[in-house]
Write a sequence for this structure.
């Protein structure tokens, strides 16, 4: 199974019928016939019943694939699970533009997660902090004794930091356990270690440990993606300037930054969900990181290079795993990881960040030129047509008529269905 030599560049992919799209992906990723069948299968109820509580059934989302992506010189098809129209098309289009100047380039830090232990009821806060640091070696050894597998793979607890925080309840010591989680998301691994350390810290300091849990502000697990978007392909200097004007509002204004960052997460969440990862953890980390300097701002940066092309950069924490969690249990998540051809959690984070940047570029590009509604509305019109009772060929006819009239309303759709 090696898809790195095949091109993800394909035009008119959206016009193909579903079975032809599946054939393309099967060929690209070297899927077996059994794996191909998974596209149209549902999660079995016994598996679902083991995953969460009080199960009644399963809930489906559309699974699409973004094409045209080149990341660090390698071609990727990116599976995206999302309910939102235009997102997959926009990402594929942005990837096509980025490809002209070489595609996406990424950097990634080590997969370091932070576990927090909150220590209260101390007479001598500074003394307690010193005692914890003095016994760092033993504490790290105790943490590592909890996860021999992680240590075997070169991961495990690597460092320990202490912070003294002031609160209405008085001062407290918050210990940060820094854990290299290798290819895992790491929450279970880190939480287990934190729980194991609690009695030892209490004994050392005479205080009381309250919280012992991972932090989702994974700011030691940072990924950066960068791409150059070709000036000519964008429509020239005026469009690049219009883009930068639009982007500037996201830098200075949290009201715009929230929407701007939501656009980034349209891409990131969809591949995170498709690979069975925890999208709430990713969302929490991303938005906390966006506010790390005291004001919530854009996660991405844009500027012009010497030739006037637009350069986009995205930086955020991405705690993703390819082992553990739901990603190992859900058959479609395993299938999506095979389509991606990823070998490490780092590679998945790099793909997700590139997708987020592509999505962000596409949204701001549309907003700066034709507006976002044009792309959105044609698919929205199809949904309205279906809601109005259109079937088969009627769906496209009704949708086309609604878009032509610029009146994408359910009442009008019902009238057109009636006429057909
Ligand atoms: P996990 O415990 O299922 O798997 C991780 C374990 O797999 C490691 O501890 C290690 O023992 C083993 N392993 C085998 N091969 C490995 C490799 N190559 N690299 C790393 N580890 C390897 O999962 P997890 O990643 O520790 O936790 C993820 C789950 O925790 C997610 O389902 C998440 O939703 C959930 N969770 C999240 C939070 C939060 O985000 N605040 C809190 C609690 C639980």
């Amino acid at each position: 199974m090696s898809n790195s030599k095949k091109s993800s560049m394909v035009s008119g992919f959206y016009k193909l019928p579903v079975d032809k799209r599946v054939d393309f992906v099967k060929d690209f990723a070297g899927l077996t016939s059994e794996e191909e069948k998974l596209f149209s299968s549902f999660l079995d109820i016994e598996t679902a019943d083991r995953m969460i509580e009080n199960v009644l059934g399963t809930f489906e989302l559309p699974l699409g694939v973004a094409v045209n992506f080149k990341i660090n010189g390698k071609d990727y098809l990116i599976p995206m699970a999302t309910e939102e129209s235009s997102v997959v098309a926009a990402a594929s289009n942005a990837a096509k533009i980025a490809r002209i100047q070489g595609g996406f380039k990424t950097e990634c830090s080590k997969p370091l997660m932070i576990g927090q232990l909150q220590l209260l009821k101390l007479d001598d806060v500074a003394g307690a902090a010193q005692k914890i640091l003095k016994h760092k070696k033993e504490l790290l050894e105790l943490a590592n004794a909890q996860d021999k597998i992680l240590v075997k793979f070169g991961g495990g607890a690597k460092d320990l930091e202490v912070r003294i925080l002031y609160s209405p309840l008085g001062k407290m010591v918050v210990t940060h356990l820094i854990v290299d989680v290798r290819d895992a998301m790491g929450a279970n691994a880190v939480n287990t270690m934190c729980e194991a350390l609690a009695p030892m810290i209490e004994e050392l300091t005479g205080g009381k440990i309250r919280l012992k849990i991972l932090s989702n502000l994974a700011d030691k697990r940072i990924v950066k993606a960068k791409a150059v978007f070709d000036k000519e392909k964008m429509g020239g200097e005026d469009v690049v300037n219009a883009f930068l004007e639009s982007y500037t509002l996201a830098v200075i204004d949290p009201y715009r930054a929230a929407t701007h960052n939501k656009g980034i997460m349209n891409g990131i969440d969809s591949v995170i969900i498709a690979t069975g990862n925890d999208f709430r953890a990713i969302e929490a980390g991303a938005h906390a990181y966006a506010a790390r300097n005291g004001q919530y701002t854009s996660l991405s940066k844009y500027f012009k290079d010497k030739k006037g092309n637009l350069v986009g950069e995205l930086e955020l924490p991405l705690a993703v795993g390819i082992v553990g969690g739901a990603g190992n249990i859900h058959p479609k998540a395993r299938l999506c990881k095979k389509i991606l051809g990823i070998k490490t959690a780092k590679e998945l984070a790099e793909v997700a960040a590139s997708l987020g940047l592509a999505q962000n570029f596409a949204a701001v590009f549309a907003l700066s030129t034709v507006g976002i509604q044009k792309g959105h509305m044609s698919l929205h019109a199809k949904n309205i047509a279906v809601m109005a009772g259109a079937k088969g060929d009627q769906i496209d006819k009704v949708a086309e008529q609604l878009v032509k009239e610029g009146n994408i309303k359910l009442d009008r759709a019902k009238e057109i269905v009636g006429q057909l």
